[in-house]
Specification:
Two copies of one chain form a homodimer. With 396 residues, chain A is α/β, with parallel strands linked by helices. The first copy, chain A, contains 14 helices and twelve strands. A seven-stranded mixed β-sheet of chain A has the order 2-8-7-6-5-3-4, with helices on both faces. Chain A has a three-stranded antiparallel β-sheet with strand order 9-12-11. In chain A, strands 1-10 form a two-stranded parallel ribbon. In chain A, helix 3 crosses helix 11, helix 6 (105-117) packs across helix 10 (266-280) and helix 12 (304-320) packs parallel to helix 14.
Chain lengths: 396, 396
Amino acid sequence: MINQDYKKMLTGKSIIRELSEYATARGAEIGYENVFDYSLGNPSVPCPQGYTDAVIDMYQNLDPMAIHGYSPSLGIEKVRGIVADSLNQRFGMDYEAKHIFMSIGAAGALAHAFRAVTEPGDEIIVFAPFFPEYHEYIRHTGAIMRVVPANTQDFQINFQAFEETINEKTMAVLINSPNNPSGIVYSEATIRKLAELLNKKQQEYGHDIFLVSDEPYREIVFDGKKCPYPSKYYDNTLSCYSFSKSLSLPGERIGYVAVNPRATDADVLAVIMGQISRGIGHNCPTSTSQLAVSQVINTTSDLSVYETNMNILYDALVEMGFEVVRPGGTFYIFPKALEEDANAFCMKAKKYDLILVPADNFGCPGYFRMAYCIDTDKVKRSIPVFKEFVQKEYGL
Amino acid sequence: MINQDYKKMLTGKSIIRELSEYATARGAEIGYENVFDYSLGNPSVPCPQGYTDAVIDMYQNLDPMAIHGYSPSLGIEKVRGIVADSLNQRFGMDYEAKHIFMSIGAAGALAHAFRAVTEPGDEIIVFAPFFPEYHEYIRHTGAIMRVVPANTQDFQINFQAFEETINEKTMAVLINSPNNPSGIVYSEATIRKLAELLNKKQQEYGHDIFLVSDEPYREIVFDGKKCPYPSKYYDNTLSCYSFSKSLSLPGERIGYVAVNPRATDADVLAVIMGQISRGIGHNCPTSTSQLAVSQVINTTSDLSVYETNMNILYDALVEMGFEVVRPGGTFYIFPKALEEDANAFCMKAKKYDLILVPADNFGCPGYFRMAYCIDTDKVKRSIPVFKEFVQKEYGL
């Protein structure tokens, strides 16, 4: 019989998807160039030419049997080694191939990480604002998601609320820095304080608490800064990565989990994830994508457009009078709406062909998200429209 | 904390993997050409040149943003339509794009199909002999796997045992024809009888019973025959397919579920599978693989070597005195061992560098599997060795 739980999910629509579909339909009417579509987090720059060249070279010159054979379920050994080396070089870690589990994007990485370190009924703590899919990612593992309310001052961690939420059932804590939707990068001080608190709680509760660090935006940071690498600060860390944003390859579905070599059971955690794969039908990412990313492991797309767009938008939003924290990375910005009901605010914006996403689903009502992974020209053209909108609707 | 259930799985080793690893290690010692490795079901012929050409053309001539963008979680609409058309043409079905769910190989297809039509505690019936991974595929959905013993006469369905096993909790029945490990193709009579019985039981129990048809070997059939398409005979069928064997692309991880348009809730089942994806981190197969297979949808690799190998092996096994049913497809053959304990039999064969897999894990003790997806030359060279083995060890 058809599973009723999944069937019920069909009635709950994603606001992001709904707005994105509206934008596409509206674009068909008035020309998509006239729709200021800030709904979707789809990279707007091509993958590096090196990636394309690597694939063509592989298909032209290598034995098809070699490149299309089964990959081991933990990933191709050589590729896992290359990922480990690259992380060691960049973040001063000491991973070996055995600590790397190749995954089908960050979604696949998280699906394995959660299952590896929790059992049904355990609690996983998430900090608002957060990517709405975390709800479903966690719910289907059988674990329970607990939300720590946002610190809207600077979108660093609300530690007081965190201490009130953490308890003996907490087996994992999920962070996402640089953050979707706020664009905020956790400071080194935040990560240190988090690590200190988790270490204290591990001792107090007498069990491991794993830090699951969702890092797809790790390479998109602004002002020439670097994003602190959480695993450097806390041993029980599983770093979940996707090449979707840094290489503009969301369709390739390729990422990994990197297990801190000092984590409990570090040597078997990737193998455990291989077992998890058997049950969830994952069975490793595409072999050719694994081979290709390993050849461009230390490069990225030209990501500078995101910083350019952020600066234009941030300055304009501040000028218009919005309350907004300046993003340190990603391609998102997260201002406070001009009325309490962010849904109403975004519906009004729609009339001006400004597609903004209200943040109730991100666990932060009253705010809205703009995904500025679009052409800079369109960002610039959207500013006068935005000004007209806030002036006419809110008298600003 | 680390999940103890998954951790325990580490102690259970796969005999196939163990033997395959042994074969590789032994090959390093004496030259792999001297190891008659019948352990692994890895295709031994290259993918069609048309596939390689399609990928190169795509990378050389199409916009990287277009080919590497997010695929919708149900698959790329155009690709789903091409799959539907191809199935309609070949099997006289009337699928539309909405009935096709693109999946990460057959493992991904099954992971979604099981979850879509069962709830935890429901029973799924499997017929021995079966692919050992079904245990884990099913267990992790929360459903319970019930095994119908093999009909070792011809490896068609043991209907008497099936009728004794099916009950009100049976929500799905899993078949795999052409079959791994027996190589047997279910006859039209078998499929008809199965459909009739399932229809009767649906009525009796007052609920749907879905037929989950695992069909990765559908295109590898011998003697110019065709494999009956189960969905043609039973409405509540989910056909699970992988391109791994027909296009020799196991590393690409690409397949689909095709929902019979007359199945209960046919129009939403693929959408339900999209919801399931959110929880298990699947999120669609690689976009470029989807686009490439859609361009060679009606072609296959040159699969003739498998039939050549089967005939050589079958004749030799019969000549040596083995009890064996002639395979109708796949690249497996499944003889009865020459002693009751197939493990002992296979361990003795190992001494002759003949790598055979005992079938206890396939739910059929006393038999062994040979995967003859290897060079025909090696198959021929293995025969005298096989004869020496059975003569010296069993006096045949």
